[in-house]
Specification:
Largest sheet: 7 strands, mixed
Shape: globular
CATH topology of the domain at 19-178 and 398-460: D-Maltodextrin-Binding Protein, domain 2
CATH superfamily of the domain at 19-178 and 398-460: Periplasmic binding protein-like II
Strand content: 5-15%
Distance between the termini: 67 Å
Structural class: alpha+beta
Length: 573
């Protein structure tokens, strides 16, 4: 039916008014794509605009909401908070505040929300290390089911879960996805490629130790290299100041716990064979039964947190920190120690997080060549004397979007839109270019990162290799990450300071872990997947059984082995 002119005009005005937010949103989106993305995307421009249009449309019911999300402070999240959050607000009308706080504070806020039911944040980027906690307590939205039901209308058709490289780490034993990866970084071995390839250094090392200077395959070789470079005169290479063969940190601080729960013990060979975390004993030394229920942490219950391999692991770390590291390192935290190798006086670091890559490839750093290539490389970390083929080889941090059930549904939906926005294919290549914390296969395989690879010291090669799946976060054996993680830095701090022997500190740690698990068991709050503790037995019973915990070796100094970096990198290709 043809309407009178006046009515047609009124209807047109009304329709224009209704469409105005969407039009404004797309205007903002196009401006953002022009200025910020500038073609740095795995999608072509039409696909980018189509994805942005979906966000504009899906956000329409939530444009009056003010949403708060939180993450730890790393380059990737700073970029999200300072650039992507304002862009999301401009494009969708949803007011996003993206707070940046310390990782320990993120866990504390999440724990408080779990215990109180108060909606402190509408979404958290928290490590997938909490997957065992989320699965057992069932206080976060199970994304698999939520995306298919209540969250279906705000789940992007271009999310493409198959493109994410870390979903196996955020999926629980029930087969459900509980978290969406936002950033990933691994702990790898870092070393001065230029120092290792210097002819004088190679000749002097060979004369002193009887084998070739190269990437250490085991801890014995790492120790020799640390000794060789500590105090060495490298003036023939133009290096001024005192040189050190190791870098680490030792301050009694929450980050000291991550230093050890992030797979240091498994690199020494403490846990069982079995990817991704060792089964039945994992890299925390926690043993589970056939139903994935924790049954012990101390050796007398079949755990390995205070086993000989764990004592060896912590003892070596303390020894190297004291003998071969800058004197200030013992008083540093994770974030303070991270930038030190880039200052140019450290030969190697066994436990170096690739999250520091972006800060270590800045022009004019002493560790950079004039052509923009690094003087350093990254490689797999060496293994300790207790390590066996098939055991866990290293740790990977997977900071992941997590929606609590205590968050009201409309707020959770709005926050989920933001989570998908900052992980979208439109934006991920640019975000990865800034933070170098890859989460998508399409980004890693892009022509852009093929071009950047020679300037990133092996990072791209690592993430394009099958090796990346062997570097895994904390697994599902840990029933309550917030409660158990705080025990590590407190007890290991006692060993680092000399207040206790390493054995005493680890005995106290495993007993404290078991005390927490016994309380969970008595409370029955995790049902039939919660802890059910083994009876204590003579430790020799467990040490004589196959697998972890392993008995003490008569000789913990194995024959050192090295490999040339160029040979090693072939295993990643």
């Amino acid at each position: 039916m043809k309407l009178p002119l006046k009515s047609t005009t009124a209807l047109g005005a009304m329709m224009a008014l209704l469409a105005a937010p969407a039009l404004a949103g797309m205007d903002e989106a196009k401006a953002f794509l022009d200025s910020e993305i500038a073609g740095l995307s795995v999608l072509d421009r039409a696909e980018q605009e189509a994805e942005m249009q979906w966000f504009v449309d899906a956000a329409a019911p939530f444009t009056d909401l003010e949403i708060k999300v939180v993450s730890e402070t790393i380059d990737t999240h700073s970029y999200e908070s300072q650039v992507l959050a304002p862009a999301f607000t401009a494009i969708t009308g949803i007011q996003i505040t993206h707070d940046l706080i310390g990782e320990g504070d993120v866990v504390e806020k999440l724990q408080t929300q779990m215990q109180s039911g108060e909606n402190i944040y509408d979404a958290y980027v928290n490590d997938s290390d909490l997957i065992g906690t989320h699965w057992r307590y069932q206080q976060v939205r199970n994304l698999t089911d939520w995306m298919a039901s209540e969250g279906a209308d705000v789940t992007s058709p271009t999310l493409d879960l198959d493109d994410f490289i870390g979903l196996q780490f955020t999926t629980a034993p029930d087969g459900k996805l509980y978290q969406l990866p936002d950033q990933q970084f691994a702990n790898l071995y870092w070393f001065r490629y230029d120092w290792f390839n210097d002819e004088k250094n190679k000749a002097d090392f060979k004369e002193k130790y009887g084998y070739d200077l190269g990437v250490p395959v085991n801890w014995s070789a790492y120790e020799d290299i640390a000794e060789f470079f500590t105090g060495r005169d490298l003036s023939h290479m133009g290096v001024e100041g005192e040189v050190f063969g190791n870098m680490d940190y030792g301050k009694k601080d929450p980050s000291l716990g991550w230093r050890y729960t992030d797979a240091w013990m498994s690199m020494a060979g403490m846990g069982d064979v079995g990817e991704p975390n060792g089964l039945p004993v994992d890299e925390w030394g926690i043993r589970v039964n056939e139903n994935s229920q924790p049954v012990g942490s101390c050796v007398d219950r079949g755990g390995a947190t205070n086993a000989p391999a764990a004592v060896y692991a912590v003892t070596k770390a303390i020894e190297w920190l004291q003998k071969y590291s800058p004197p200030a390192a013992a008083g540093m935290t994770f974030s303070e120690a991270g930038p030190i190798p880039a200052q140019g006086n450290v030969a190697q670091q066994m436990f170096w997080y690739t999250a520091f890559t972006a800060a270590t490839v800045e022009p004019d750093l002493p560790v950079m060549n004039e052509d923009g290539t690094p003087k350093w490389r990254m490689a797999p970390s060496p293994h300790g004397v207790y390590w066996k083929e098939g055991q866990k080889v290293g740790y990977q941090d997977v900071g992941s979007w997590t929606l609590m059930k205590s968050t009201p549904e409309d707020r959770a939906k709005a926050a989920w839109l933001y989570a998908q926005f900052v992980t979208s294919k439109t934006l991920d290549l640019k975000k990865s270019d800034v933070g170098l914390t890859f989460i998508r296969e399409s980004t890693i395989d892009s022509d852009h990162f093929s071009e950047r690879a020679p300037r990133l010291g092996g990072l791209v090669e690592f993430y394009r290799s099958p090796a990346r799946t062997a570097w895994s976060p904390t697994g599902t054996n840990v029933p309550d990450y917030p409660k158990l993680a705080q025990l590590w830095w407190q007890n290991i701090g006692d060993a680092m300071s000399g207040a206790k022997t390493t054995q005493e500190a680890l005995d106290a740690l495993c007993e404290a872990q078991e005390s927490v698990m016994e309380r969970i068991e008595r409370a029955g709050i995790q049902g039939d997947i919660g802890p059910v503790m083994n009876e204590e037995q003579d430790p020799e019973y467990w040490l004589s059984q196959p697998g972890a915990p392993f008995p003490k070796l008569e000789n913990e100094d194995e024959e050192p082995i090295t490999i040339s970096y160029d040979e090693l990198i072939k295993s990643w290709q």
